[in-house]
Design a protein that fits this description.
Pfam families: YlqD. It comes from Mastigocoleus testarum BC008. This is TFIIE beta domain-containing protein. It contains 3 helices and 4 strands. The chain is α+β, with helices and mostly antiparallel strands and about 150 residues long. A hairpin with a 2-residue loop joins strand 3 and strand 4. Helix 1 packs antiparallel against helix 2. The radius of gyration is 27 Å and the shape is elongated. The protein starts with 7 loop residues before the first strand and ends with a strand.
């Protein structure tokens, strides 16, 4: 057995991906956020229509005059619609805040974009902490720099 070969492990790490703020990056992110806001508005409209249809259906199928069971069904539908509406409005508000933050970013500033998982090799004598601290810097989607101990 050859003792000179070192023992190695392959481990998984999180790699932070950062973007350098450029006019193109700002434009793309703003368009994505605007699309999210538009989609949320459409979902809110659909939710209103679906809620009104469901209530109309319950009213149509109920006895005349409507009994307490019908009122309870309508109230349940309203509660569900309002809960979903609240979630969607919170999403929209978050997107609007993000849009405002993007507009305030200065050019050439670095911002966290996302995280990836990657594998790395470690062996006796390696500095584990420095091997775990790796980040990729992008400029308009192109890798500009890889920082850390690969």
């Amino acid at each position: 057995m050859d003792v000179s070969k070192s023992q190695q492990l392959i481990l998984k790490r999180i790699v932070n991906v950062k973007a350098i703020v450029t006019p193109l990056w700002k434009e793309e992110v703003q368009q994505q956020l605007q699309t999210q806001i538009t989609q949320t508005d459409q979902q809110l409209e659909q939710l209103d229509v679906q809620g009104q249809r469901a209530i109309a259906e319950v009213q149509k199928q109920s006895l005349q005059p409507p009994g307490p069971q019908t009122a309870q069904q309508i109230e349940n539908i309203q509660t569900q619609v309002n809960q979903k509406k609240s979630e969607l409005l919170e999403q929209k508000n978050q997107s609007l805040q993000n849009l405002q933050q993007v507009q305030l970013l200065e050019l050439d500033q670095e911002v966290n974009q996302f995280q990836l998982e990657g594998f790395y090799r470690v062996e006796k004598g390696d500095n584990l902490i420095s091997k775990m601290q790796v980040e990729i810097v992008l400029r308009d989607g192109i890798v500009e720099e890889i920082r850390g101990d690969i």
